[in-house]
Structures are given as structure tokens and as C-alpha cells.
């Protein structure tokens, strides 16, 4: 099959038989569920843009396996140029959807596996890489969306997997069969899970010998027997159920996250990419995390939307020429571009791994993500400053349509000549959406915790800098004889 | 009547005949409306605490008119000690409700009017102060909650009131009668409006001669003929309509804001406190703003709740002893107490006005509020850091109760021994409520824009500092002869 | 004696026979030493202002012992009003000198001792308070400047005093005699030491039983036998030795710090205020630290000078009306006033101790100081932004006077009509002085470390907040039943 | 000639006959002047490293003119890889010298001229590019250090060059001769001027028709007749004149800046690269500024030294394992690497100009530099936090050597076993040097103002972002029909 169109993607989802729960009920039609649908729209855009000539350079790549043009989301990075394009693809999609478009996590998982399966094989003489490449070819050929599933519930954080009172707090092998393995456990915070064809499971932390049963990585169809999805709820989620559309802010796109439960699920051997090689769990986590921290370039894209919205409301309010407003817009752009710089830089400074895959600079990827845990909050604060208090005191769309009070609202919320009150409401609701509503979940809290919480990056920064060299020069410059 | 009890307050509200609209429909029972009710609970607490001995010192005062014990919210500050107690009362209530308790705006309006009506009379030989004191005695005697209504819609911000294409964009007198005046216009962002017995109207900006019809201040019963309230909606507002209670975060308290429309409303002369004295509009705005910027001590109280919640989730997550978590809690406290310092300092540095009323330091009140436009955002960011990503990926209460998936949720969201999954959910929902949900409206966006947007404070800071003295000393110290 | 005049103070210093070393040589004439002299000028101002009617209210107080008017620097605070005046006195002096005026540390030591000597006596039946009050009367009567000496060298920070390889790393008793004790050790970072008549020694940390010999507090004349002062050097110190005056920035005032060595110094019993009561060492440290953290209100005064200088250079550069410059000046003021708020608030929230002395709020004093470790750095950064690069590329005063190149400099450094190039140089040198030069030592680095390094305040903030109450309410609000 | 060695460079400087003034006197031996010498050492290192195999890749390039290996500082960037290597070369040198090494400004001037001379020729049919390339070949062949001179004194900032009361406030042509032109004026803040062989002059602002005489660019030997250098003084400059070496902090390297006066200096036509083409002045300024803002990667190098010093003093103080110290070191690294990311990203995102030269991304170069105006100040603040107060209270080197007090100092400033007091002093003096002393001039104030003050970058950021696209998507997402 060639790359799927958006329509083909949507159709392909309809064929899946996912077990999805939301608000305590089974979701019968996942694709058309009003709360889930906007997130599907966002993934769908990753298919649509790949067919548009102006985005072809960013959205597609040439498979190093088949030599065919593929969607970049299924590509294994073959150069720093590929890495930089990944950064730009992420920002592009964020800037067009104003939300999380979910497909990067599978890409990051596949790239990490392309490195680690190779390294395991080199060291242990296994054949994981061969298996993985066969699986990859299938994904590329069918242009599939994969969920990369890493985060286990973790139970008592002070205990390793095998010491947990409940052995399922980390996903693990419960049975080895001739044709495969049976696993049990759960993966939390799974972004875009129910819009995916496949789910790729990885361990979530470094492991030691006792945890061997937990050192497991594999891929499954999203609707494999025994997998259940339970949707997380988001701020303002039920506004999508309301009759009007203005109050939801973003008319088209959204994100979602789910808890994925694996209840004794069978995985055939050809889809197992790590099996008890606990000593490689840490590397897989670290490589995936580095790739995924780079991926937060998407937040610069969401920032683009929020900046555009802030500029627009400033104009609607008649305040766009006030020097303090202009200065705040500049600050928003400055912070947003600083985020982008981090993602570009870690890509540009990436390097070739033994497998041939290019990996970002681990140090700079962590620096990039660390800024993502800060700047979107400040950008949001500035957006709220510019928006004005009306953003949180605006009556509902129904009030504006009400025969009793609608006219009053239209009268009193008018600003300058030529500015539509409805348009002003719309842009205010978009800013609310990104800074307090459903998109705030992705733009703020997930910027904080996605791809690892801030402290995780700080630890990595600490490990990756060459402190010895810095100290050596400092001592030389002030005349301290290096102690030997 | 003595001070009302909470029950008496609630009963008194039921007697009002308010015209309230929400989601395009008239609210038939305001007091019991599930979205409005939590905000009534918060005001009710201001009545309840006044009867509790441990809070008597903060919550009550002695009327300088009647000599009787009154609720401090109806008191005119007679000393800097009164001002400091006002700060502490605000923090106390914020720390007990975790939200905006709404009653300060009327107190601030009355104190500002006690100064300005006196000053008008002194200059122009009018009798506004006498009228006002009579009205004040009525408020104190009946222990009423007053809405202080200042912010007009303002239309085209580049034009003064009388130049607006629509003359109603600022509330104004449309007719003078023998027994009073008729007014038209609207007041936006009215916090606690539908929980109030009275509404006290003030002009919103400095005015010049052409704006005389707009220079008007008066008080009306909240249910006077011609007044309509249209509720603003808040992030996650409809969660209060859901069957469960966990997902709303704060079980008890909330805030609300409304647009208040005055459609040719009659005001008898005895309730008119400014009438066309445009040259005093600016002073009234400034005095009210100074008092109200002090009032944001309440956000230190909400901060207390958020800090308590952050510490609790840290404990539930088993992370409370991690040095970076402890450090973040300290930073939250540090920022929160810095907010409190600003409110205490502007009170402590307050002074007696010609009317006998004590006014806060205008400079320091603006400094106080300026910090309020910043620190709650950072405190929220840190709270989200500590809370973890689960705060925005947690399934709904209904999922936890679901026979199909509830057990899985309880199993997989368990952390350490002895920690209740439900309690963890509850505290996460409270943090969500304050940082993204209904309370975020008050804790964040209203911290930004309430009592004036940040730029308003910056202008006041610029005007209030004694730059000439600073420059004089700087020049002396470096040997510049002062130019005369 | 009544309060000394500035001249009498200077004369009194000339009578002292201090052992002072600087640049490896003994300073024969301390008072006239060009590097030390500016710091003496600053202390002298504390005497001069006390005689000026406009400053009398802040600079003087009524002794609670003698009932006489005394310099406030020798006063024991008898009310929160006294505490607030102390804050204002500090800011006033900072704003007039642009540097550290050194006399607060003795005041803070005496106030702390007034509390702790009383508490020791109450618990142990000793007579330290009586001794102390007699000494205090002597200080008040003679209007003396006292150095409060707390910080020991501390050696290996991981070891308590009595476990140090060198027993002298903390000052301690080496001999007990009939008429007194003999002590040995040193005190570091002693601000204003060689401008003082007296030195009051206190322990530097909480102590346990083994450290009893180190739990000692006493007062000595500054020129007691066995005391030696070794001056610390400051950035740009030797500019004061240059012929011209412009390049030193501040023409009049400065600060200094010294290491004070006690080489077997005898202390008579009547001047010993703590002797082996190790269990009170911690309280003395904490009370002194709280007072001294309040004292950093002086930095808001230095900030006033820097802001005045920044405004002046903006005017000289013709940039004062640029919106970004005005905004930076506002930000400087905002931060500076926030510092002031902290000091006012901890004073206002102070309370009476059993001894009758008023102590500041420990929590808010620590919050105050924590901000002092941050904001002066940002204020300096903004001042450098406004000043322009010339501040660090300006040729020397001698170049401006040079017959070969002076005219060129005067020509090319001219800005707008009517602006004196020399005056511009002067104000640039003042900004350099405060942000990089001798005054930067006090405004920046000592703001960081004086009265305890930032982490010390964070620990105290952590201890002082009522976390249990915050958690209790948070749990109530979200429906968690308090565990009993 | 091949690339010069360090020794050859130093020898070449000795042959120059520069007119240099400092402290009001002519400097007879520039190379050996103790204040200037450290800056020469830093430039010298750019020659030395080019001969070391491990640095060859960064320090050298292949000339696109001659095809020979040249020092990268004389290279015209032929690819984004060249641009990225420029970034890394800058960081490398900063990390080895701990100061400004001065040679980048000439490289940036030449690259900007390689673009603009080409563009002028294309539009106007002139031959500037040919002239420039010939000159470039000379520079490359002789491996010269060039000073890029842009900043004019500017006089009254509100007036354009030709309206200034003194026509010399911007450098301009005063006479056109057959064989060349005569110029007059001055260039301020000239980093590394007296260590340069050549000086390349460019206009400093965009110009209009009346300013044609000011639109001039050319190159001259540094010792051309009529050029005079007047050295700027730096914080702590005279410590380099002291006998000891510890107190100067950095034993080897430093920077300098000078005012360069052009008093009717003749320039032959073959060295004139712009002559009255005022419409290209703005482009030249902007291209140079973009390159030079990229160059501030060097500050990440200086940051490396400061971080190394902070880690070292933490170890000497026995505090390196305290969690708050580790966290501060991480923060320093994080900010420092964020600076690096900006410089890498603007290089990576650079593009080919019509002349063939690669130019950095203007937007990201400005974002990069904007962060440089902030983060070094915070890194310095953290370094001072870690260093402790001793950094500013430490006695002089002479005191430590003094027979009277040296032993006491050595005794009392000892920390843990095995830590040399002298080494601790040395590292403290290095931190003082970078945060308050001579190197602070470069690390802080010049980070603020070099390559344009912060507001200049903000204006460029505002111009370079695609706001229309951001607004278009924001409107689409919330359902606003784009107005046509």
C-alpha cells in the first residue's frame, strides 16, 4: 500500500475492535465519539499533509528498508537532516492543530528499538533487530500509527518491579509459550492510544537481574485480545458534548490519553523485541526518552497558535499597538523560539549509532525538554495577560443565542467598529482552551510530565555534561596545579 | 439585627427576586443552582466564621457609627491595625475555601466611598458623605453583602465614555427625576453578584468634563427593577452538574462572575453618592483599586490550600522526602508568603484620610497586586510538577465506579501501602480544580486581571515612587552638582 | 554623654588602638586610610542623622532603661512600631549612602541577647540578663557602635565544633579564671569591624553537649589585647588609592569586612552573656538571624540609589522616554519595593517575647531575606541594560584629563545638548560601583550571603510554615476524611 | 605564508606601530603591557589551537578562494556545517580562556561584507565584491586578526548622522581623492582593537539619503596614520599591576576594549567596500549583527569555566554533595547549554545567500543573543551562591604572605583535610574575576550590550516571526472566517 490518505486512515480505524471505556461506559463507536473525535482528526492530519506537495519534504522520507516514500512518522532517522526535519514536522503539526497530534511517540519508540535491538544482538547474538526490521517494514508498508507505551503505574516508587506487593504494577511476562509469551500489566498516560493501529510496549526504567521478567518489549495490534483502554478525562472535556461549538475553543482538534490494561495478552515471538535482557532496559528508556524529549518541538507549534491568538485578541481589543502588549508578544515569541532552538540543536548535534540510526544529542534533548517544562507556562500567563479577564467571565454560547439576553451580550461585548463580538468570543475561547481547557492538558501539564518529569531531565543533564573538563580548565586558569 | 448567621444569610438570599441567566436560560432557584451554590457557600462562610470565637478578632470589628460589633466586611477601617486585620481575614477565608469568597469588593467600595464622598463634600459643599453614612449604617445593621460594581464594558478603548458610538458602553445617567435618577449601562466581571443583597456602582476610569453623566456612584438592592445578571462560564463549570463529586475537586466552595445589565434603573437620591462630579471619578477609582489590590491577600490563602494539596499528593506518591520536592514546596511557600508580605506591608504603611478612614499605601498595594499577577502562576506550575501527569490523565469518577473497569483502575492507581486510591484521586482533582478548573479562574486569571490588569499597577508604581529623591542622592554620591 | 555627633564619633575612633592589617601591612592610621575611610563615613552618618530633626523619629528612640533619647542603633525594640522604624531607618541609610553602613549588626546582636539572656535566666536561674542590661546601659550612654560577631571559620563543615581537627575553627573558651574567661578563635566576614567601639561575640550554630566550650557570648572593647583585624579586599578597592575621584563611583561612602582573630583574649565575667549553655546557642543564632534578615531593608535603600542612577543615565543617554526603558525602571522599582514589603511585613507581624523585647516574624524575615538573595541581581542586570555598554568600556579619568586624548574623549562621548560628558561618566561609574565594584560586594554578594546564605532561609521557611493546617484544609475541601 | 603560530602572531604585533593611550599615558610597549597582555594571550590561543590536531576540525577551514587550509577566523562560511563549527569554535575558545578572545568580530565583519558587497554589485554594477575578495585573500594568506568596527559614538540618539550638531559623531567621508577617501570619526567599544592587524569599518545603523557620506565601509592596517586607540578601563583592571598573581583570578587571559579615533585617515580605493550606498547600510548592519549574535556561543564557553569553578569551590567547601548545591550546578549547566542551543540552532537553520556565503537564521540568532543578555547573570548569581561570602571578604594575597598575619589566615581559612587554602583562594578569585572583576565585563555587561543591546534583538524578533501565519491558523481553529 502507498501512504494512506486521511480518509483511508479514518476508515482503517473503523475496522478496529477496540475495548474503550469512558465515563464508566463502553464506547461503542470510538471514531465518532465527540470527545475522542478531535484527537482522531489531529492524527488524520499527519496522513493528509503527507500528500500535500508543500509539506512533502517534512512529512515524508525515503525508507532505508524499501527505498519507498513513506510517512516520516514511520521512518528510522538516517542523518542529522532527518532529525532536524523531525523537529520541524513536529512544530508544523503543533502549529496547525493547536494540540497534541499523538503520532510521535510511536516514531520515537521505533527509532529507539532500531538502536537497542541491534545492540542487544551485537552483544548477545540474538535476532531482535531482524525481527524488528520485519515489523518496521510492515508498519511502513501499511502506514500505521503506533502507540509507544512506556509508563507503567509503578506502584510504590521506592521498590523495584519485582519487589512490588502487586507484581502487575510493572508490565511483565506471566507465561512463556512455544509460539510466544503472555503478558500482564498496564501502561498509563497513553497519548493517542485509541487512534493507533499498533501498540509498542517498552520497559519504563533501568532494571537489575531480579526484574528480568519485566524487561520486555513487543508490539501488538491495538485491538489484540485482552487489551482494554480507559480514557482519562481532561479539563473542559464535556464542552465537546454541548450543542454549540464556540465554547470548546478549538473546533477541530484535540488530544486524549488513556490507561491501557493488558490482561494476560498473548504476543507471538516475531513481535517480541526484548525478552529478559534487563541490562538493556535502561538504554532503551534513555534512547526513547531522548528522542521523545526532542519531540516536544511540537509545543513550539502550539505556542505559534497561542501567539497568533494573543495577537488577534489584542487587535480585537484595540490594544495591539500598546508598547507593553507588543513587548509581551515579543517575549512569547522569544520563549517559543528558544524551545524550538533546543529541539533543532539536539537534532543537529545528533550522531550515528552502531545500528546506523541517528540519535539526537542526549544532553541537548534534555535541555530542550527542561525548557518545555517552564516556558509554555509563562507563554500562557502572558496570553492570559493580553486576553483580558473576559476570557474567564464570558457567558456561554447559549446565552449569546438567548432571545432574552443575547442582544444585551452582543451590545455590551462590542469593542471597536468592525470587530465581530462573536469572533472575539471565539478567539477568547481558543485561548481558554489552550491555557485552561482541554488543550492546556497537552500544552501545560503534559509539557511538564510528558517524556519524563523535570527532575528526570535534570538528572540526565547532570550526567551528560563533562564536568571534569570544566573543572580542569578552571583550575588551570587560576593557577591550581591539577592534583594527580 | 445582630450579625447574621450563615443560615440567616442563605434565607435572606432566598427572599431576593434576582433576574439571573445562565446557559441561555433563566435560573429559577439561584440559591440551589448546582453551579452557583458553591459560590454562595463561600460567602456564607464569611457569616459563619464571624460567630466563631477563634475568628472573632479577624472577622468582626466595632462600628465607628454605632459602636456595635459588626462583620468586618461592613466595616470602615479606623486604623492600620484594621487594615492589617483585613489582610489576614482575606487570607484566612482564601485558606479555608480554596477560592474567591467574593465579599471583599463591597467592603472595598464602601471604604473608598467613605473617603471620596467626604472629600467631595469638603470641596463642593454637597452632602454625599451624610447620605453614604446613612446607607452604611443600614448595611452594617442588616449585615448585608454588597457587590462593588466598577468595570464597564468600555467599548472602544481609545474613546472616552461620551465619545463612544454606543453611549451605554459606560454606565450613565439617562434621566434626572425629582426623587432620583435613572441609569443605563452594564458592569462586567461582577464577582459574587448573585450572592449579594446590594450592588454599589462606581465609575471605572478618570473622567473629564464631557463625561459628567458617567460620573455617577450609587447603591441599589440587588433585585431592583431593571437589573439582570448573566453568568459567566468557567473552566469545568459543568462538572458540578455531574452525579459524582470527586471530579469537581473542591466539594464545597467556588466563585462566580456575572455581567450585570442596568436597563433604565431608578435610583432614589438618598442612594446616590456621586452625581456628575467627574473630577472625583479618578480618585474614587484609585482609592477603590488600592483597597482592592490589598484584598488579593486572599490568593495567599488559596495558595495555602494548593500548597497543602501539593504536600499531600507528594506524600501519597511517596515522593515527599525527595529533595527536589521539598525544595519546590519551599519555593511555593516562599512565593506565597511574599504575596502576603505585600498585603501586610501596604496595610501597615497605610494612613488616615481627611474623612478619618484609613487607606493603604497606594504604592505598596500596587506592588502587592503586581506580584499576584505572577506568583500564583508559578505556584501552580510547581504544584503540577509535584502532582505528576496523572492529574490530567485520570479517568472519571464513573470509571472508578464502573463494574467493568473500576477494579482495574483501583488496582493500577494504587501507590504505597496505606494510601487510598480514592483519596489520591481526590487530591489530584483539587489540584486540577485550582490550576486548570473552576478555581483556576479565580486563582490565576482573576489574579491577573482582578483589581486591574498588570499594566495598571505598573503605571501606578511609576507614579508613586519618589524618583526625584532617588536621582538627587545618586547624583550627590558620584559628585554631580545638582542642576538648578 | 548625650548622643555623639559625627565629629565626636570620628574622634572617638581615633582614640582606639586597633591592630589592623591590609595588603600585608599594619594600618597605622585606620580612620584616615583611604580604603577604610569611606566605610567610616557611612557609620558616621548614623550619628549625624540622629541630630537632624527630619530624621529624629526614625534615627532615635527612647531607652527603656534610662528613658533618655538614644540612637536607635542602641535601642531594644519595645513595640512593632519600633521594628517598623528599624526597617525604615535601614532603608533610609542605604538610600543615602548607596552602600552598607554597618551599624545594624550590633543592634541585632543586642536585641537577640536581650531575649536569650532573659530566657536562660528564667530556665537556669542565672544572671546573664542583668549583666547584659548593665552593658547595654553603657552602650546607650556612650552611644557606641558595636560589631556583632557571629560567623566562625567553621573548618570542615561536616563536623561539629568539638570534633574539628583544629579546635579553634569555632571560637571557644580556653581557660576559666576567677575574674573571667580566656577565649580563642576567629570571626569571619565582620562588617564594619574596624569602625566599631565594641565587639559582641555570639556562637554561630546550634550546639550539643560536647560543644559546651563553644557556647559562649560576650562583649569586648574593639581594641582589647589579643584582637587582630585583617581586612578583606573588595572588587575595585584600589581605585580609592587613585588620584582622581570619578572612577571610584561613590565619592563618599563604602563598606568593609574583616577577619577578626581572638588570640587568647581575656573577658571579664561582667561581659559574659552566655557560658556553656549550649542548649540556647540555637535560639540565639535564630533570633539574631531573624533580626538581621529584617535588616536587609537597607538593600532597598541601595536599590533606590541604583534606580536613581539608572533613571539619570537614561536621561543623559536621551533614552528616558523609550517605553522599554520606562518599563525596566518600573520593574526595578517593583522589585525594590517588594524587598521593602518583606522587611515591613516581618516587623509588623512581630511579637513580644518574655523579656519584653519585640521580635520580628521569623517566617517573614526569612522570606524577606530570600528575596534579597535574588532581586538585587535582577535590579543590577536591568541597571546595566539601561546604562549601556559604555559603563565597562569608558576610559579612565586620567584619559579624560590627558592633553593628548582628553579632548577626543570629551568630543566623542558627548550625547545630547546640555548633557555634561563628565556627569555622564560620573553616573556610569556609580552604576559600575554598585553592580561590579566595591559596592557590588555589599549590594550583591553580601545580599546573597549576609545574615545567612539562601539555603539557610529556605530551611527556616520550611520549618516555620504551618503545613499541617494547609493539608488539613486541602483534604477537607476535596472530601478526604482526615486519618486519625 | 601558512597559518601563523602563536609566536609568529605575537612577533607580528610587535612590528605594529599603534598609537595607544591608557590611564592618560601613551603605551610604549603594547604587547607587554601588563593590563593588555592577557588579552593578547587570548587572541594568541586562536593561532596556537589551529596547529593542534585535536582542534583542527574546528579551528581551520579550507579557503573557498585559495583552496588552502586557513584559520577559521578568516574563513567565509560555505555551508551550515561551517556555521555550526563557528559556534563550536567560539564555545571552545571561551571554555579555554574564560574570557573574550576577540577575534570573532573581524570574522563576522568579513562574512557580512562578503554578502553585502556582492548584493551591491548585483544591483548597482559596482565592483566592491571583487575588491573585497582580494582583500580577503590577503587576510587569509597572512592569517591576520581583524577588528570589525561598527559602533559609532552616536551623539544625540534622536538625530540621524547628518543632523548631529557635531558631524563626526558618526564616522564619515570628509574628502574624496583620486586614489581614495579621507575619513573622520570614531568607533567605540572596540573589542580586541589593539591586538589586531587590521581594522574593518562598517556603518552602525540604517541610513537614508542625507546620510550618504556616512554610508562607508573599508579596511585599514591597525597602525594607519591618524588612528588612535584609547583603552577602556575594566573592573579590577589594576590588579594585573600587582606583584602577586592570585588576586587577579585568571592568570593568563583577559579582554580589552578601546575607543578608536580616526582623525582624517586616508583609505585607498582598493580597500573601500561601500561608498555612499546608504540603502545597503541597514543590510550590512543586520547581517553583521546576526553573525555576531551567533558568536555569543563563546559565553557558553566562559560559562563552562564558571561552572567548573563553582563545582570546584563546592568540593573545596565540602558542600558538593548537598542537594541544593547539585541542583544549582544543574541549573547553571541547563542555562549554559540553552545558550549553546540557540547558537547551534541559528547556524543549523542558516541558508545560502546569493553571494554563496551562508548566513545564520536571523530570527534564531536574535533569540540566541537575547538569552545571552539574561542567563549569564543568573549563572553568575548561582556561582556566587555556591562560592560563599568569602569570595568578597577574602584578604589579599599579600596578607596571606605576611609574616604577621599570614599564618592566621592559613589556619582559619582551612576547610577539610587535604584542601589547600591557597587553591581555595585561587578558585574564589577566579569566580570573583568572572562575576565581578575584569572578566565580568565580558561575561556580563558585554553579554548584555555586545552585538546590540537587548531591545535591538526584540525588535528583530518582532520583525522576523511570521505573525500572519500564526494568526491565520488561530482563527481557523476557533472558527473565525478569515476577513478578506
Q: How large, in whole angstroms, is the Cα Rg of chain A?
A: 24 Å
Total of domains of chain A: 2
First-to-last CA distance of chain A: 64 Å
List the chains of the largest interface with their residue counts.
A-B, 88 and 88 residues
Instruction: Tally the helices of chain A.
Output: 17
Indicate the CATH topology of the largest domain in chain A. Butyryl-CoA Dehydrogenase, subunit A, domain 2
DSSP strand tally of chain A: 14
**What CATH architecture of the largest domain in chain A do you see?**
Beta Barrel
Instruction: Name the CATH superfamily assignment of the largest domain in chain A.
Output: Butyryl-CoA Dehydrogenase, subunit A, domain 2
Largest sheet of chain A: 6 strands, mixed
> What average pLDDT do the residues of chain A reach?
97
Q: What oligomeric arrangement do these chains adopt?
A: homotetramer
Structural class of chain A: alpha+beta
Strand fraction band of chain A?
5-15%
Helix content of chain A: 40-55%
Q: What is the approximate shape of chain A?
A: globular
Protein name (chains A, B, C, D): Vinylacetyl-CoA Delta-isomerase
InterPro entries (chains A, B, C, D): Acyl-CoA_Oxase/DH_mid-dom_sf, AcylCo_DH-like_C, AcylCoA_DH/oxidase_NM_dom_sf, HpaB/PvcC/4-BUDH, HpaB/PvcC/4-BUDH_C, HpaB/PvcC/4-BUDH_N
GO molecular function (chains A, B, C, D): oxidoreductase activity, acting on the CH-CH group of donors; vinylacetyl-CoA delta-isomerase activity
Enzyme class (chains A, B, C, D): isomerase
What does this structure look like?
- The structure is a homotetramer of 484-residue chains.
- Chain A is α+β, with helices and mostly antiparallel strands and 484 residues long.
- Chain A folds into two domains: 6-281, Butyryl-CoA Dehydrogenase, subunit A, domain 2, CATH 2.40.110; 293-475, Butyryl-CoA Dehydrogenase, subunit A, domain 3 (Up-down Bundle).
- Helix content of chain A is 46%, strand content 14%.
- Chain A contains 17 helices and 14 strands.
- In chain A, the strands form four sheets. Chain A has a six-stranded mixed sheet with strand order 2-1-10-11-7-6, with no helix packed on it. Chain A has a four-stranded mixed sheet with strand order 5-8-9-12. Chain A has a two-stranded antiparallel sheet with strand order 3-4.
- In chain A, a hairpin with a 3-residue loop joins strand 6 and strand 7 (180-191).
- In chain A, helix 8 packs parallel to helix 11 (375-387).
- The longest helix of chain A has 26 residues, at 323-348.
- The N and C termini of chain A lie far apart (64 Å).
- The model of chain A has no long low-confidence stretch (mean pLDDT 97).
- Chains A, B, C, D: FAD binds at residue 191.
- Chains A, B, C, D: Keywords: FAD, Flavoprotein, Isomerase, Oxidoreductase.
- Chains A, B, C, D: Its EC number is 5.3.3.3.
- Chains A, B, C, D: This is Vinylacetyl-CoA Delta-isomerase.
- Chains A, B, C, D: InterPro entries: Acyl-CoA_Oxase/DH_mid-dom_sf (IPR046373), AcylCo_DH-like_C (IPR036250), AcylCoA_DH/oxidase_NM_dom_sf (IPR009100), HpaB/PvcC/4-BUDH (IPR004925), HpaB/PvcC/4-BUDH_C (IPR024719), HpaB/PvcC/4-BUDH_N (IPR024674).
